[in-house]
Specification:
With 209 residues, the protein is α/β, with parallel strands linked by helices. 35% of the residues lie in helices and 19% in strands. The chain contains seven helices and seven strands. The longest helix is centred in the first third of the chain and has 20 residues. It is globular and about 45 Å long.
């Protein structure tokens, strides 16, 4: 987990312990229910943990705010962000039961009290959130349709409430109709080759489509 400390040296002892525990928890549960590929397990901190934490380089979540992680899979980006922001409430949703089972066990193993895991389609989630995060579960037009009406109108952060979406590759065509979208290149924050083509797309609540 040295790569996490390389870019997030300010974390406290409890957070360090939580991040350290992630590897053994995922290795154990992945042997029972395969939710992360073998290659990705071997590079868990680079490909999953640090990639998830990239969102924190763009947006710091305030205490008392709420974040929805859509299509969380094995718990990314939600679990690493919940460790980093213990006073922010995170809801992790996925429609595949075996994945939410693993996430629930990891969250329990870490003792995180700021995470709720829901096995459901996101369309069935009724609450509203300050931000919605995700890792490339669908093209942006599909994703915005799924999460319509789930973002709070009143912002408590300087940046307006909206979507923070981890994506890769050329997004020109996909985002051509979203005039208010901002793109952040992750190679500006992390020097590893893995992040060369990785990006975060920020889409504020009042996006144009």
């Amino acid at each position: 987990m040295e790569i996490v400390l390389k870019y997030f040296s300010q974390i406290n002892a409890e957070q360090k312990q939580h991040f350290k525990l992630l590897e053994s928890l995922y290795q154990d549960w992945n042997q029972k229910i395969n939710v992360v590929s073998r290659k990705d397990i071997d590079e868990l901190y680079l490909r999953h943990v640090l990639h998830s934490l990239a969102i924190a380089k763009v947006q710091q979540f305030k205490p008392g705010s709420s974040v929805l992680d859509v299509g969380t899979g094995g718990g990314f980006p939600g679990v690493p962000l919940a460790i980093l922001f213990p006073e922010t409430q995170f809801t992790l949703v996925d429609s595949i039961g075996k994945k939410t089972k693993v996430v629930e066990e990891v969250v329990s193993g870490l003792g995180l009290s700021n995470v709720t895991v829901i096995n459901s389609r996101v369309e069935e989630v009724t609450n509203k959130y300050d931000f919605i995060v995700s890792r490339a579960v669908a093209a942006m037009p599909t994703f915005t349709f799924w999460v319509k009406g789930k973002i709070k109108k009143e912002s408590v952060h300087e940046r307006r409430n909206g979507i923070l979406y981890l994506k890769g590759g050329d997004l020109t065509a996909e985002l051509q109709n979203y005039k208010t979208a901002e793109i952040f290149d992750l190679h500006n924050y992390f020097e590893e080759e893995f992040f060369k083509t990785k990006k975060i797309v920020y889409l504020p609540l009042k996006y144009k489509n």
